[in-house]
Design goal:
Layout (H helix, E strand, L loop, with lengths): L2 H16 L8 H40 L2 H4 L13 H59 L26 H5 L6 H8 L3 E6 L3 E9 L12 E8 L4 H7 L5 H4 L8 E4 L3 E6 L9 E7 L6 E8 L7 H16 L1
Antiparallel strand pairs: 1-2, 2-3, 3-7, 4-5, 5-6, 6-7
Length: 325
């Protein structure tokens, strides 16, 4: 329809509204009728518009619900999957947390069971080693014939409870605090011995081995002797640190060396050998007579010598007692 026809139709309708045939109808009634007709037409137009909008929107919404999330957002737009919320989301989170807690508890129980098993195995191994070594330990204590007393030189007090600096300015300075045992040991075992490493008072101590000496290895010595003196410790502390040669590798807690009490507050220990060539390593730990620290005397002998480490330790105790007794 053209603009001219539309304007003509509106003028005709307006003329009808403003013209009345019945002369008894007043002009005011004609105006009121015109206003009612305008309101009625406006209401119809609004109702029709609402119906049209509803008819268009419903299919569009249905299509959006059935479409892929990315398509619903429009071309070129992707959306993530909806996040579970409300009661279902809380239930799922609680279930996940409960599963994780149960798994953590299971891992802790498993770790605890493994530790308990290792401890039980270590205790059984220690008991077996102690039972096997007890006769030899008792025989050595009997051979000692009573308490062993060693007294540290008063000159060591300048370093105690720490230790003398090592290495010193020269080998002679290191050897100066060690007892002179090379000739004594040589006469007993029929071979030439020499000071090897260490100093006193020092946790490393002084060591003696047969000559020729080797510092780069291999250390294939028929005998090995060591004397240490450490301040600020106790016999029981040193005793508690001694573990079997292979025990610490097999059991994280270590397997204590078989041991025996010795008169005078000392302790005797029989630990694992350094390697297959040696007899077990024997150690005597005793308190210093002056109360300045703890003495530790150790000896090891290769089985090829025909003499045990226990015999070697007995010789060492005798010779050290002659110097510091």
């Amino acid at each position: 329809m053209t603009a001219e026809h539309d304007l003509s139709a509106r003028l005709t309708a307006l003329a009808d509204d403003l013209t009345w045939l019945d002369p008894t109808v007043s002009p005011e009634a004609v105006v009121a009728r015109h206003r009612r007709q305008r309101r009625t037409r406006a209401g119809l137009v609004a109702a029709v518009a609402a119906v049209v909008a509803l008819v268009v929107a419903v299919p569009t919404a249905i299509g959006s619900l059935s479409a892929d999330p990315g398509e619903a957002a429009g071309p070129g737009v992707r959306t993530t999957a909806p996040v579970t919320t409300g009661a279902d989301g809380e239930a799922e989170a609680e279930a996940r947390a409960a599963a994780e807690s149960a798994a953590a508890e299971a891992r802790q129980e498993q770790a605890g069971a493994e530790v308990a098993q290792q401890q039980a195995e270590a205790a059984a191994a220690h008991a077996a080693a102690q039972e096997a070594a007890q006769p030899e330990l008792d025989a050595f204590v009997t051979a000692l014939g009573g308490p062993v007393s060693l007294s540290s030189p008063a000159g060591w007090d300048q370093w105690l409870p720490g230790s003398k600096p090592y290495p010193g300015a020269s080998t002679q300075e290191d050897v100066a605090t060690c007892p002179q045992l090379s000739d004594r040991l040589g006469a007993e075992f029929g071979m030439r011995f020499s000071y090897w490493t260490g100093t006193l008072p020092n946790p490393g101590g002084c060591t003696w081995v047969p000559v020729p000496l080797s510092y780069d290895g291999p250390h294939d010595y028929a005998y090995s002797f060591r004397v240490t003196f450490e301040g600020g410790t106790s016999v029981e502390h040193v005793r508690g640190q001694a573990v079997m040669g292979g025990g610490q590798q097999d059991h994280p807690g270590g397997i204590p060396c078989p041991s025996a009490d010795v008169p005078g507050g000392a302790a005797l220990m029989r630990c694992g050998a350094m390697d297959d060539r040696y007899d077990a390593d024997w150690t005597l730990v005793l308190p210093d007579a002056r109360g300045a620290g703890v003495w530790t005397l150790s000896a090891a002998a290769q089985t090829a010598t025909g003499r045990s480490s226990a015999e070697a330790l007995g010789v060492l105790v005798r010779e050290v007692s002659a110097v510091y007794g």
